[in-house]
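note to self: dont lose this again. the chain is below, predicted strucutre after it. 319 aa total, dont forget to put it in the shared folder this time
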Amino acid sequence: MAFQSNPIFWQNKRICVTGGAGFLGSFVLEGLKQRGATEVFVPKIEEYDLVKLPDILRMLDASRPDIVIHLAALAGGIGANRARPADFFYINIMMGVQLMHEAWKYGATKFIAIGTVCAYPKFTPVPFREENLWQGYPEETNAPYGLAKKMLLVQAQAYREQYGLDAIYLLPVNLYGPHDNFDLQTSHVIPALIRKCVEAQERGDEEVVLWGDGSPTREFLYAGDAADGILTATEFYDGVEPVNIGSGQEISIKNLAELIARLTGYTGRLVWDTSKPNGQPRRALDTSRAAEYFGWRASTPFEEGLRQTIAWYRENRKA
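---
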């Protein structure tokens, strides 16, 4: 059952979107506009360091939010997580924990905490179900990040129980789409593959070298769909349980690389560097809870989303 958004819900509500200037944030802001929200505050990173309590307080004074959608995060691929595990833990936990506490003190009536699929245990049965979230330790390369984000679930449940705060916790799977980060040092797998294939094609390279052996599986969600899921949950979900936000489709990294090579027109060889880590063996979500609790399912076909992402990269890469 699909839930129909009501513009009255969004009218006259002050909404603070941390990370609103980022990749997912651009889609959330567009979704808010489409739903009729008019009082939306986006803290700029140059003005507010959300790791610092005084900056959080200044931001709350400036935004006076009824709703806080906390998208801001330090995130990245395996390489970035391995290089900066302390940063990935400290920055994410300090932003989230202080922000939720101060937003509650300030009188915000709803807090949307965005978790990560990296919070799941390394050997979670596939597809990942929300009840499996605590049945083991996360995959080592991104455990500091995954656990820092997972603490927001504990906090949301505790603040709901003690203070009655309507805090919800959503678990988006790996996102992709236009406006993504294509920096090879910090990007996730889809933008990295797109950039490598496009540049190799232009140079006439005979091969592209990729990390691991291609065997891990992943699920990917178009960022516009993720934004729609987050805003649908904001409007219709008021519950204690975490909820997966995903497409429900699993693909191996090897098949993904071959698909992106085809869509970009790259015809050289794909070579796997097995000295590099694979990351989590399999990753795919059970998305039935989102459909049951607030009537949401992803709608963008994977190839269509990839085509849009590749087209955006080709048009904007020089910038």
